[in-house]
Amino acid sequence: MSCLVLAVFCATCAIYLVCAIYAARAAESIDFFREVNMAINCGIVGLPNVGKSTIFSALTAAPAEAANYPFCTINPNIGIVDLPDSRLDFLAEKFATKRKVPATVEFVDIAGLVKGASKGEGLGNQFLANIREVGVIAHVVRCFENPDIVHVNNKIDPADDIETINMELAFADLDTVNRRIEKCQKAARVSKEEAKKAEIVMAAINKIKPLLENGKPARQAELTDDEKEAIYDCHLITMKPQMYVCNVDEDGIKNGSKYIDTVKAIAAEEGADVVVICGKFEAELAEMGSPEERLEFLGELGLKESGLAVLARAAYHLMGLRTFLTAGPDECRAWTIHAGDTAPKAAGVIHTDFEKGFIKAEVYSFEDLVKYGTEAEIKAAGKYRIEGKEYIVQDGDVVFFRFNV
To answer: Which residue among 46, 156, 321, 399 is least crowded, i.e. fewest CB within 10 A of its CB?
Structure first.
């Protein structure tokens, strides 16, 4: 029997256990990260009527209210999306597994912001508060022309749209920073210890504030680790990682456009990612019943996969999340970890006992399984590894753990 599914009691009373067989809840790893770190969800933001809710509905197959007028979305919609992963599909087919459990991404559809949102225009205060609660931002930009769909500014101008949103987010953070300055000034008078803490906060603020005053994001500031920690409780919106989502028409998918080029140029200056999606096309694709129909529909535009699959993976990686895999005939599963997590931490995502009693991890890469075909051949090629507590688990590792009961 494959050692991916075999539990062997060794003389040392250690156990080789296939991680995938453990009957954990599908969302267990997500809950784990919520407890120990920042929010691991992606907020979909932008001006009203740029297609945020259409994209969200296609992503989650849980339709959000979408209409041709501003502020259709008032309360944020939340949806959990399975992360498309061809590696998991490969393992499930190879092991003829009974159950396949993908990683997931949480998306939040936040109502459209308008100019003046940082001063409360268009329920801006409420919507900005929603953005503060997400881990990363997907900024949807309208990159198509359609006279039947109202643009809040009555013109298609991606650069202006991006500037409007980015300025409002920066101004909202500027208000937060100014309030924090007042707090620091008061704290500095309390004691030497508080004054020392306030000094570190002010060092961070002195780097951040000039950026915000010019409509630039706080994430562009070069902060030390101590400064980042000191300013963390401000929960600055513009410290969050951001990517741009170009919502285009079908011609834009096939041939590109000047609007897409504009967004890509702005993103390149910021070091941000860009995903190009046709929201209308994705909505129609999501309604199709069979994989064969969807593949045929994708083929008509010369696409191999949905733009939403690209978006989900981009959001996942932007949040600093990575996936390791477990496999066997009972279950194949993709487990969510943070980039840089050690083997014991990865083991703890499956169960805390795995982390507490961690001895070693047995690891090989998914690419080596594809290349060599079997675990035996991977071992013969010297690609099967025994790793200890310091090992940093890599995206795409196939892992099972040895631990003390």
So the answer is: 156
Contacts of 77 (CB under 8 A, 6+ apart): 53, 56, 60, 62, 64, 108, 109
pTM of the model: 0.80
Backbone conformation region of residue 271, classed left if phi is above 0, alpha if psi is from -120 to 50, else beta: left
pLDDT, one tens digit per residue, over 65-116 is 444 444 444 457 788 888 989 999 999 999 889 999 999 989 998 877 767 6
pLDDT digits (tens, 9 = 90+) for 17-64: 333 333 333 333 333 333 333 457 899 999 988 988 889 888 886 444
Nearest to 312 by CA among 80, 76, 130: 80
- For residue 19, CA distances in Å to 22, 55, 149, 395 come to 6, 34, 50, 16
- Tokens 């199709």 belong to residue: 288
Query: Which DSSP symbol is given to 123?
Result: G
Asked whether the beta carbons of 70 and 112 are under 8 A apart, the reply is yes
Kindly report the average pLDDT of the chain as a whole number: 82
Strands of 41-45's sheet in order across: 77-82, 104-109, 41-45, 136-142, 242-247, 274-277
Cβ atoms of 242 and 272 closer than 8 Å: yes
- State the Cα–Cα distance between residues 384 and 295, nearest whole angstrom: 36
Q: At what angle do helices 158-188 and 124-132 cross, to 10 degrees?
A: 80
Mean pLDDT confidence for 109-135: 71
**Residue 269 token pair:** 């200056």
Single-letter amino acid, residue 189: R
Range of weakest confidence among 173-187, 262-276, 278-292: 278-292
Is-contact 217 242, C-beta < 8 A? yes
CA distance linking residue 381 with residue 299, whole number of Å: 38
Task: Supply 218's token pair.
Answer: 């706080």
* Beta carbons of 98 and 331 less than 8 angstroms apart: yes
Render the burial of 342-364: b for 16+ CB within 10 Å, e for the rest.
Answer: bbbbbbbbbbeebbebbbbbbbb
Number of CB atoms found within 10 A of residue 269's CB = 8
Beta bridge partners of 334: 325
Nearest-angstrom CA–CA distance, 138 and 91 = 30
